Amino acid sequence: METSAQGPQQQILSKTFTDNTLTTPSSLNNNNNKKFEAKEEEQQDSLSLAVMMNNSNQQHIEDHKSKTNKNYLLLLVVNYVCLFLGSTSSTLLSKFYFNHKGSSRWVSTCVQTGGFPLLIIPIYLPYFLKCTERKPFTHFTKKLLILSVFVGIMLGINNLLFSWGNSYLPVSTSSLLLSSQLVFNLILSVLIVKQKVTFSNLNCVILLTLSSVLLALASSNDKPTNISRAKYFIGFFCTIGAGLLFALYLPVMEKIYKKVYCYQMVMEMQLLMQVVATILACIGMALDGGFSEMMKESRELFDKGPTWYWVTVFSNVISWQLCFMGTAGMVFLTSSLTGGICMTALLAINVLGGVLVYKDEFGGMKVVSTALCCWGFCSYVYGLYVKMKEEGKEKKEVEKSIHVREMVHMVNDIP
């Protein structure tokens, strides 16, 4: 009886002894490490949650740049449509103004940024519609203000160069010359924002450079009959200068936009830049008697009459705002190089518009130049496609490796 009674006790003691022998110092350390890691993860999760709650509005706004945001694609499409409509219509309207005896380059310069009050709509509308809790101009630092003023001065000079170039050149020639800004854009993007150089980038640069050289060789047979050779080449080099300045503007803005965390703030910076550029244009107009010249031009010089004159001016104001808003949005949502590529894609439309609307000459040299421009653009787009495909493959491999690691951890955690 004693033996049978002691059996269960011995079994219990044996089991206890076995469990204790299994609990070695190394296993205790492992258990303690696991508990410590679990506790640390919980603390990190709590801290992350607290940060997200404290900065919920900022996180919501930062998602404007995130490709996983449901509104990202919509915002991107809206900005490209604005760029498409603004670029095409502003080029044709500017040429319409000069073709019908409009001669004030200060007027043409001023209308490019004179519609800055229209930017109040994308700045304040999201706040009033409760799409964001951020009040307009919140966290707009003194540094951003100084940068906006500096870029605004650069933008004002660029607008003047563009007006001079567009007044002396056919639309098709000025559009193709502006394709050179993509070459400058790539080089300056490498220097300023450390853009990676790829085969598609270099191929695009070479093809667009050849396109500009061919256009320059054909320039002597392309000048309008009422423009002297000297003025034609002034327009030629002013357009090149405008392309260079705009190519500098894009990567500079990309670098500045890295400090900006929402689309509304991009529009706020655009508002200040255009105010500065408009003030610069108005000072030039005042010193050169441009305001009185504008009134005289509308009544006496513009051959379509005062009504069509003011319709042209105000239509140009709206079209330029669409163009600048679309450009800024593309740079913010993607990159300066992609923004330049999108603008280059519209050059063929501008060239076609100049030929169809204004009967600009489109000889063999321009055909070859346009073909090279399109070839360069297509090669770049193909390079982007290959890059996105490789990034997608790498992302899948990373997700697969993470999944395998999680499975291994789950197996190891099984007692």
TrEMBL record:
Membrane topology: Multi-pass membrane protein
Subcellular location: Membrane
UniProt cross-references to SUPFAM superfamilies, sorted A to Z: Multidrug resistance efflux transporter EmrE (SSF103481)
Annotated transmembrane regions: 72-94, 106-125, 145-164, 176-193, 200-220, 232-250, 271-287, 307-333, 340-358, 364-386
Alphabetical UniProt keywords: Membrane, Transmembrane, Transmembrane helix, Transport
Region named Disordered: 1-39
PANTHER family with a match to the protein in the record: OS09G0467300 PROTEIN-RELATED, PURINE PERMEASE 4-RELATED
Protein name stated in the entry: Probable purine permease
